[in-house]
Amino acid sequence: MTTGQLLLWIIGLSILLYFIIKWGVKNGINESMLVSEEARGKYRQEQEDKVQRSIDDLKI
């Protein structure tokens, strides 16, 4: 494979990757869809508990 062919492969793959990412963003595929509802619920509960502990500490 010559340098020119390698360069064409890299450019072609870059263009393909650009359109795949563009399609994914257009269709609403983002990080929040990759995380399960249970994991989000657990994280939300941990954050609420942390806030409640901070409030309790301020009351003391």
Give the distance, in angstroms, between the N- and C-terminal Cα atoms. 72 Å
Helix content: over 70%
Any idea what the shape is? elongated
Q: What structural class should be given to the helix and strand makeup?
A: mainly alpha
How would you characterize the largest beta sheet?
A: none
Mean model confidence by pLDDT: 85
- Uncertain runs with pLDDT below 50, 5 residues or more? none
Q: What portion of residues belong to β-strands?
A: under 5%
Strand tally, please? 0
Order of helices and strands: HHH
The gyration radius over C-alpha positions equals 23 Å
Give the domain tally: 1
Number of helices: 3
What's a quick, concise take on this entry?
This protein is an all-alpha fold.
Please explain how this structure is put together:
- This protein has 60 residues and is mainly α.
- The chain has one domain (3-59).
- The protein has 3 helices and no strands.
- The longest helix has 24 residues, at 3-26.
- The radius of gyration is 23 Å and the shape is elongated.
- The mean pLDDT is 85.
Labels describing this entry:
85% helix; 60 residues; mainly alpha; elongated
What layout of secondary structure does this protein have?
Blueprint lengths: L2 H24 L4 H4 L2 H23 L1
